[in-house]
């Protein structure tokens, strides 16, 4: 039996695997996000900040998955109409804003990857992302589910090799810096910001919660999603500590680390993994928008035209390519940092208060 067909996998692990696969593009694929929201507070402060993010992710995912189950809300339009009533559009504003920032980060990352690794023109990477995303989005939910699930295993393998090389080359320095427990002010806020802005990808996970049948399954799937999502980030964080503080000023810290490793073959393998992950992430987020559009057609008992899926993908990625000119560091620090507070008010607070209360009143919290 295939792993992705296992009832246990679909109910307890699939939502977390989808969450982790999508969050990597805006959460830590380039390493810039790890530096900005964790390592900038020192090795000790980074671990504390990461712990805050992990707890928030697990709690928020558990509450979200249970709400999805309770109201059978598998697209964000349905979900937020149930959660916020007439105010549901406030989330859509935040989500589309976040999506444009994410598309810009993905486009910029893809351009830099091929430019720095293979010497190709910046826009070759951007076009490659456009084509890869278009194929996945056009094929729909099942292909995206399978792609995100299986690619996660490749991602984990590459990250394990990454951290292994880091410890082989400067393991003593990593343990020494972690032992020094350097903690700078701001780690708590950094942990919350990182957790909140990355919850912008949560609509991508909604369709994967349709296999969850009981409250216990939803809670465990949420707890595991937080742990699954953060583990690759933790591995990358440990690796980056080995080049602290030199790595703090790098736009793409992972490229810097790959250069330090001095292994052209692994550098190519990592960039292939990251490029594929960027395609997955953009596809997943755009798929959530298409599901929202499809829900309108379903409500009117009409078939959604097939051209809409690639058209939405093209428009969002093209907009992202334009916005990417603001630069990777600025987008991650200012763009993500700002939108995090928007998600706090339109998602985090409502789902932990109204969401839990409404699910309970619906009589759906069955052990």
Characterize the structure shown:
The protein is mostly helical. The protein has a single domain, classed as Amino acid/polyamine transporter I (Up-down Bundle), CATH 1.20.1740. It is built from 14 helices and no strands. The longest helix is centred in the middle third of the chain and has 40 residues.
The gist of it:
The chain is built from 14 helices and no strands.
Number of strands: 0
- State the share of residues found in helices, binned by percent: over 70%
Number of helices in the DSSP assignment: 14
Radius of gyration: 20 Å
Biggest sheet record: none
Q: Would you identify the CATH architecture?
A: Up-down Bundle
> Terminal Cα separation, in Å?
28 Å
Produce the secondary structure layout.
Layout: H1 7-27, H2 32-37, H3 42-71, H4 76-84, H5 89-118, H6 122-139, H7 141-180, H8 187-198, H9 202-205, H10 215-241, H11 253-261, H12 264-299, H13 308-323, H14 328-361
Helix pairs in contact: 1-7, 1-10, 1-12, 3-8, 3-10, 3-14, 5-6, 5-12, 5-13, 5-14, 6-12, 6-13, 7-10, 7-12, 8-14, 12-13
Keywords:
Amino acid/polyamine transporter I, 14 helices, 80% helix, mainly alpha, 367 residues
